């Protein structure tokens, strides 16, 4: 029987497979592909409180442990070839990280 962390990892893999909106390649700020075919969960219209107003953004949530490092100036490439630049971090619980993303 596996330990707790192995059970959490199995659960996260199952969630990623079930809830994924597609596969995304993760690129660093120089365009170097760090991860291929990363399952991602996309949310549209997420509220983001700015200094002066509330805006609505698109977010992309991925399993954090699958990223070799977090590059706040990196980007994601979706299956249609669209590039999405990281515009900030919405949430990070250690297992999953949710990025604000904008079209490049």
Helix-strand blueprint:
Layout: H1 4-19, E1 23-27, E2 33-39, E3 41-49, E4 54-63, E5 75-77, E6 83-92, E7 96-103
Antiparallel strand pairs: 1-2, 1-5, 3-4, 4-7, 5-6, 6-7
At CATH level 3, the topology is: Thrombin, subunit H
Largest sheet: 7 strands, antiparallel
The level-1 CATH class: Mainly Beta
Distance between the ends = 45 Å
Note the total helix count: 1
Poorly predicted residue ranges: none
Approximate helicity band: 10-25%
Pattern of helices and strands? HEEEEEEE
Spatial order of strands in the largest sheet? 2-1-5-6-7-4-3
Round the mean pLDDT to the nearest integer and report it: 93
**Strand-residue fraction?**
over 45%
Principal-axes geometry comes out as globular
Rg, Cα atoms, Å? 14 Å
Write up what this structure looks like.
This protein has 104 residues and is an alpha+beta fold. The chain has one domain (4-103): Thrombin, subunit H. It is 15% helix and 50% strand. It contains one helix and seven strands; from the N terminus they run αβββββββ. The protein has one helix at 4-19, and strands at residues 23-27, 33-39, 41-49, 54-63, 75-77, 83-92, 96-103. The chain has a seven-stranded antiparallel beta sheet with strand order 2-1-5-6-7-4-3. The longest helix has 16 residues, at 4-19. It is globular. The mean pLDDT is 93.
